[in-house]
């Protein structure tokens, strides 16, 4: 739907009106036959029809294009009243800037920001409402440290709230202890596996050293036996020399 013509200051050219809703174009698009429409209006029309609503020529939504630049400039220069005029806003803006103004307008009706509060108030009155809102949150006046809503004051029980908080802390502590326990067990298992691997490697190295020692001792015994034979041969040779 377009902008209500009654909001505009002065005359609005007929060519700037939507051919469907007859209001001033909003997010305007143009058909190949040069008829202009609000984007929402023409897309709603094309869900049930396949022709231009003005001249009944065949129309495909994919052929819709933005307005000519001169038409868009004419639209943007139009002056209109803020939609909150009936609430007291006297601002008149160009169509190009009206959305920005209305997003920030002090006379806009907005919902209270406190969760659960159904009150709508003008933006300029929001701070005053928040100061007395039944759904505003504040610290417990008894000093238990809890945050309570104004609507819950009569139901707030410091002992019950603290007991609940204590149970939550206890549950959280148990969870953390269990997590720490599992982590320590995992680390110990990892270290245990590492120590078993190291022990196996050392055992293999010891066995290898024993094997080497055995070979060395065998070589020593062999050398000593050869030395004895050599000495005996020398003694025998000396005896034979003496006899000669």
UniProtKB/TrEMBL annotation:
InterPro entries of this UniProt entry?
Answer: Znf_RING, Znf_RING/FYVE/PHD, Znf_RING_CS, Znf_SIAH, Znf_TRAF
Decide whether keyword Isomerase is in the record.
no
Sorted alphabetically, the keyword list is:
Coiled coil, Metal-binding, Zinc, Zinc-finger
Which molecular function terms from Gene Ontology are attached? zinc ion binding
Zinc finger, TRAF-type: residue spans? Answer: 101-144
Family annotation (Gene3D superfamilies): Zinc/RING finger domain, C3HC4 (zinc finger)
Classify the source by domain of life: Eukaryota
Q: Give coiled-coil spans as residue ranges.
A: 192-243
Any one of the GO BP annotations: regulation of canonical NF-kappaB signal transduction
- This chain belongs to the protein called E3 ubiquitin-protein ligase NRDP1
Q: Which organism is it from?
A: Tinamus guttatus (White-throated tinamou)
């Amino acid at each position: 739907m377009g902008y209500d013509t009654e909001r505009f200051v002065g005359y609005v050219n007929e060519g700037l009106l939507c051919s469907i809703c007859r209001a001033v174009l909003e997010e305007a698009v143009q058909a190949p036959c040069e008829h202009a429409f609000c984007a929402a209006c023409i897309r709603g029309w094309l869900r049930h029809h396949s022709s231009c609503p003005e001249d009944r020529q065949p129309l495909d939504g994919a052929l819709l294009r933005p307005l000519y630049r001169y038409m868009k400039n004419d639209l943007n220069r139009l002056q209109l009243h803020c939609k909150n005029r009936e609430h007291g806003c006297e601002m008149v803006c160009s169509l190009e800037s009206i959305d920005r103004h209305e997003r920030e307008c002090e006379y806009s009706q907005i919902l209270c920001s406190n969760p659960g509060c159904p009150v709508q108030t003008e933006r300029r009155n929001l701070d005053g409402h928040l100061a007395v809102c039944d759904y505003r949150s504040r610290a417990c006046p008894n000093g238990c440290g809890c945050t309570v809503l104004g609507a819950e004051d009569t139901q707030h029980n410091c002992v019950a709230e603290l007991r609940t908080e204590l149970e939550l802390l206890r549950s959280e502590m148990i969870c953390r202890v269990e997590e720490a326990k599992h982590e320590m067990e995992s680390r110990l298992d990892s270290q245990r596996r590492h120590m078993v691997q190291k022990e196996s490697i050392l055992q293999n190295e010891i066995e290898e050293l024993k094997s080497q020692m055995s070979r060395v001792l065998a070589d020593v015994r062999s050398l000593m036996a050869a030395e004895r034979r050599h000495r005996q041969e020398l003694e025998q040779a000396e005896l034979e020399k003496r006899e000669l």
